[in-house]
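thread from #wetlab-drylab

HS: before we spend reagent money on co-crystallization trials with 2-oxoglutaric acid, can we at least see a predicted complex? here's what I'd submit
DV: go for it
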Amino acid sequence: MPGLVKFPTFPEGVHTHPLLVIDYDLLKAGDQDEIDRLWKAATELGFWYLKNHGMDDEVNAMFDLGAETFALPPEEKMPYHYQQDSSSFGYKSMGATVIDEKGTKDSTETMDVAQDDVLAYPTKVHHAYPPPVGAAMAATVRPFVRKSMAVSFCVLGVMDGKLGLPRGTLAGLSRPEERSGSTVRLIRAPPANSPAGQTFLSPHTDFGSLTILHNRLGGLQVLVPGGEDWQYVKPLEGHAICNIGDALNIFSGGIMRSNIHRVVPPPKEQAKFERWSLVFFTRPSFDAPMRALTEQSTLIADAAANAPAGKFETGVTAGEWLARRILTTRTNRFKDGDTYKAGFKGTEDLKI
Ligand SMILES: O=C(O)CCC(=O)C(=O)O
Ligand SMILES: [Fe+2]
């Protein structure tokens, strides 16, 4: 974040859900207890804190880059806006997407920098970015992406083992050499001086495999399985918040949980401040089929066999899945609530 900005600590007395804390150093070392705890987190809630990820410096540098980029005047950001009919790579201005079935426009600015563009820079693969991003590519963006990829691939490797998949299976569905929707996202949400009940990000499951989130202020909430009420996830200094997305839910025949979450203004005194998040989304290669890996694991085959027929055979690729969910939120495409709900649907099994 705009590292020098001081903000009030997360308040007492708000309904908060604790997450398991997973130690990345222990995971990398193959510690069996830690692996078991990660498995518990990934299958029960689908969210956990990650400590000792070793990327605090890269995260702070990314927040500074976000501040520099979003501070540009609109005429210097808009040329890098995402294209209406394609992916969300690039800059997104406030109001360019809708956040609910009523067609309410969003109030955040975002910048998505594609992993493919970061790795190939200065060759452009998907999109162009404002000059501060290019200038920071080698020193800031690429180191952040590399460390985030290492975390993701470590988690995917652990999941291979637990799911009974041949080693490297899940990473093989997100090979950096193949084009994918994997991306870094910076999000700036304004201070919440607007009507109560405002939402920054409506209830959703994440579209890809694994999400690694760094935030400073509260506002992220989860709907705990079987529960009715939204509970805050408290940001913890130096801890990332990780969660499972739709692709891992589908690949695993529903064993891993892609849990529904949303973002509302930060609680109490924190609401007066701008809210910044930095997210790294690992998503499968565009060509990867979104279906349960039943041939490679009896555990997955059994899980899929117990689910309603076809539930984990989506018939689409990861690229198509992503495009459907992303394009549904475009303000210029919004038609009506039913079309929105059908188009935005993820793997949630809870009612939105
Ligand atoms: O900003 C946050 O805390 C969460 C963001 C999120 O859920 C998303 O970008 O998918
Ligand atoms: Fe999310």
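DV: The chain has one domain: 37-344.
HS: ok that's useful, forwarding to the group
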